[in-house]
Amino acid sequence: MADQKSLLKFTGSLSGLVFYERNGKFYVKGAGGADRKRILKEPNFVRTRENMQEFGASAVMGRSFRNGFLPVSKLIRTTSLSGKVTGIMKRINKAGAGVRGSRSFEIIKNKTCLEGFELNQKVALSSVFYPPYPMPELNSTRNLITWQVPPFHPTIYISGPHRASHFQVLLHAFVLSDYVFDKDVEKYLFVGDKYHEFRGTSYSSVLSSRSHLTETINLSIQLGEPELSNSAALVVSIGILFFEEVNGKPLLISGQNSMKVVLVA
Questions:
Q1: Each residue of 107-122: pLDDT tens digit?
Q2: 246 in the same domain as 200
Q3: What total number of domains does the chain contain?
């Protein structure tokens, strides 16, 4: 048995290791009784060490992806996404360049792993918001995102909670850097940490769920970075929030709102 010394604390089993919590502390042990010193040094555990390194990197990437949704995730999400997102990042890692234990996380090359991701796993966007609309558009430098939703009738194309009297459409975007293994320092590093500072959200007005919309909804996000490198992916999502009118004011209905990643470029 050994302490988990890394900043990343998790429980469960992986490649013959058992990660667990006891009295507020985190420990790791081999399923067959192997201790930490053997796991880190002995040749028999080389595959275990490779798996541990990539699993830890997948968890870090997953956290960066989830952080990209701040602060809208507080409006949308109803359940923890940590395990699901880490699993997605493990698939991206498995397809990355390099040898096992140090394979890269290349986001744009593996964008299909993220496109279609639902922030609210219980309420898919397509189940509550389905008017005809085009995909968001990007400019040539990927620092301007625009989305236009043509006029539609909410009673036909929106299926929100029965008590919802109003809704709000939103566009959200953030940048996620590739994550690669640096042999000189023997650990994973983001190609561009600064890119994670760039995120933005655009909201429509709070609109009536019962009135026919006669004007196009125009949303846009201008990011601060003048131009993104090929090692940085722009993650674009669209979503909807529902409101209930209480004492003449629309109040957000929690747990029923949706957002989906529609574009990674």
A1: 999 999 999 999 999 9
A2: yes
A3: 2
